[in-house]
Amino acid sequence: MRNPVVLVTGASRGIGLKCTEILLSKFNAQVITLSRTISPELKALASDNLLALECDVADENKVKTAIAQGIERYHHLDGLVLNAGVIEPICRITDDTPLSAWRTHFEINFFSLVTAIKATAPSLRKSELGGRIVFVSSGAAVKGIAGWAPYNSGKAAMNALCRTLAEEEPEIVSIAIRPGIVDTAMQSSIRENGAPMGDEGHGGFVRLHREGLLVKAELPSHVIAALALKGPKTLNGQFVSWDDDVCKEFMA
Q1: pLDDT digits over 37-54, tens only?
Q2: Known active-site residue 62
Q3: Residue 39 burial (CB count, 10 A)
């Protein structure tokens, strides 16, 4: 049986990097990664089974070209992990943050998803293993966290896109997953730049870090990697947490 092929966006660090490591080492997958830079950690995974491409996911043409290059290399595509995203700008709706900053956020966190889906859908439809898309979402999609106006909105839009895709492409299993509050560079940015959240909201994230309560990236990443290859149709269009009962069989 041939190796499965999975494309991961935002793979240079955090969840994307861990997901890539797990796909390569545990699931014997061939992995195509798209990231703005190739980090030393990603570079260290170099093998014939990894095609790491520098690509700004907000650039539609570059994403299309990179995906075509990856599919040409491995001839198939079975899974797509849509992980690339930013938290910035951390701002309040009525502050003086320019609308251009919101637009940049949505180019990365939402419109890049549409580009990737359009570019990969033909291959995912033909997958012998059954095509799957995992959207790395957030609890912010269903909350109104102060200071996270763009992020809350973008993740809610992501979940809506997942639900709609499940209706339009029922043979491609689409799942949005909440990875929890993970110990990543994004959390560092929140602690350093979280003043717009207010003292209580910002203080909560600082406390989680101080008390060692952040989720280790490898835990939700294993679930994400497994779902990208084995996600069941019963989860198509669903938004689930990485530690929900329905994900237990996909945990490390």
Answers
A1: 999 999 999 999 999 999
A2: no
A3: 17
